[in-house]
Amino acid sequence: MRQIVPSQWKKKIRHFMLDLDARIDSTLFSSGKGARELYERFSTFMDRFYVGRWKRWVFIEPLSEAATIGLGGLILMLALAIPAFRETSDDDWLKKSDLAVTFLDRYGNPIGSRGIKHNDSIPLEDFPDNLIKATLATEDRRFYEHFGIDIAGTARALVTNAQAGGVRQGGSSITQQLAKNLFLNNERTIERKVKEAFLAIWLETRLTKNEILKLYLDRAYMGGGTFGVDGAAHFYFNKSARDVNLAESAMLAGLFKAPTKYAPHINLPAARARANVVLDNLVDAGFMTEGQVFGARRNPAIAVDRRDENSPNYYLDWAFDEMRRLVDTFPKSYVERVFVVRTAIDMNVQRAAEGAVENQLRQFGRDYHATQAATVVADLDGGVRAMVGGRDYGASQFNRAVDAMRQPGSSFKPYVYTTALLNGFKPNSIVVDGPVCIGNWCPQNYGHSYSGAVTLTVAITRSINVIPVKLSIALGGKTANPAKAGRAKIVEVARRFGIKAPLPDTPSLPIGSDEVSVLEHAVAYATFPNKGKSVTPHAVLEVRTGTGDLVWRFDRDGKKPLQAIPASVAADMAGMMSHVVSEGTARRAALDGIPTAGKTGTTNAYRDAWFVGYTGNFTCAVWYGNDDYSPTNRMTGGSLPAQTWHDIMLAAHQGVEIKEIAGIGAGTKLPAPAASAAMAASGASRLPDIKPGPPPILTKRGADILVRVEKMLDEAGKAAGKATPGDPVKPGKPVSSSAIAFPDSFAAAAPGEAAATAAPRKN
Hints:
Elements: H1 7-46, H2 53-86, H3 93-96, E1 100-104, E2 110-115, H4 129-139, H5 151-164, H6 174-183, H7 190-206, H8 209-219, H9 229-237, H10 246-253, H11 259-262, H12 268-284, H13 290-298, H14 313-328, E3 338-343, H15 347-368, E4 372-379, E5 384-388, H16 413-422, E6 430-433, E7 452-455, H17 456-461, H18 466-475, H19 482-497, H20 518-524, E8 533-534, E9 540-545, E10 550-553, H21 554-557, E11 562-563, H22 567-582, E12 597-602, E13 608-614, E14 618-625, H23 640-652, H24 673-681, H25 700-723, H26 737-741, H27 743-749, H28 751-757
Parallel strand pairs: 1-3
Antiparallel strand pairs: 1-2, 3-9, 4-5, 4-14, 6-7, 8-11, 9-10, 12-13, 13-14
């Protein structure tokens, strides 16, 4: 092997390696020497600038630290600016908000509008001088001087708020407010404020001051569903913004801060007080003298009375959001921004829904400690016929039907039972209602009692909590963690129904601890009467341009129904859920002669009360509770929610051909009032089919008053008998009128007696 490489080659290789090693050593030595000489030269040169003693600590060190911190600050600002500038990635960012939509109901009648119509907007030079001055004096006095952020104004606001211990002044400039209107939302977070600041600077580099002011005047929300000062002038004063006087300009300028709080059609005294503050600002800023504003103080603006107008604002806000998403799907080459949209809303049903919610809250809200409600009524194709997002749109524009996420309680259980039926269970399958634990969590039934062996139909009718939890375990089969695997199947089925809420995996998911929205929950239930087909909630039926050209139509271009579950399973579930209405926790929801099914829901501490139900024509969900998650006074889904559902659906079915539900049939007639009275008089203890009225609320004081009235009537009857002893005695046992009128009422309404006879059942 040693002879393979010739000896002369070995010698050459050895010399080459020695030469390479020498060159490397020489290079490293020369480089080190050169670097050392270079450093010495640099040090000698820099010694000329050396500053010692006090000058070093007064000048040099602070400047060095400032440079270091400044460089770090620039890097941090760049990192913070990147998310803000992503908001401007759309080349059409200026036109994206330039959408003007006129909405029609399902029959073609105008119901309102949303958006800004720029092609009809007023040029800035046509706005009255007093309106522009009032806006600048109140919102941003140094608007034409700063670079997008008013440093002095922000500092002043911080000092004022710190002294007041709360928010008294806003530090945002007009440019910052415009950035928020164009790109951001109203959330109160540091991230949003940082984005707002960067976007304000970005806007200042893209637009002139006058363009920014014009956009601000056109796009700011001004209350009453109006955007821009011209729309507000028409809404509040029935005139163009060109024609408003100083008093009206002051009232309009006062709306920028809090349009819902200072809207004159809601609170005229507050609007006038705010306008007076704007007049003070005009004087303080030097834009006007006290003499010039004196007339406006003495003769404040008079707003048009809009209290009788009932525009479906929650519905319009949601429909406008849907329309904006829909327009984003149009080709980029499509430049039309003005549309006429026919929606699925039925104003008769909408008014009935609003009236039912208001009536129930007015009558019983105080007793139940409930302040808010939301409801959605939808066709079986997902078209929303009515939406109530809260009690008063003027007081709060937060749409509780769409944006609020609340625990559904037992109204979530139909998804669990559907999953069970899909995995071999039947409506008459027997499951034992007994103790069960998952880890250290052990669900309890209301009343802390168990019913033993029951069918699934009985379990859903009586809203037993343990059964859905046991089903979730059984659905998991022989996996390592059957409860977790079973819950995964339940979530997957809920997704098929159309539930898009997060639904995190928790042991209590089968009994409705995960939050959902009223809208999703209502339309998901349409899968049952739709023979297992799930649909998508929508408001838009038809989109046309301002000139009448058809652009989009739901039945042609919308999302088609999907077969979520077999029709046989949907029919079985409808049969099971019909018992909830006929003999279970939702008797108040029963409709005369109309097949009805649904499920009540009540959450821990009575924070949320639901009833979600459907007929062969519509589906509807009703929620009651409080915005601050405070508990109600023992409100269950079978009380106000079921009664409200009944009132709404009764109106919705007027003049409508009643359709059957597979698994239920055509429904049954409720007994006539005379028959009900006869049953009551005969002492019947169970009246499941009596048409329910409002929930009985009778205080102890009211009961005492009725008892005293009863005694007075008895005493009056006895006194009358003693006064006329010669009168013939009528055959039969004498019965006082109070004995006929009141005993059943006391049994139903007196809380103490009801609790003594039978424990109430939580839904």
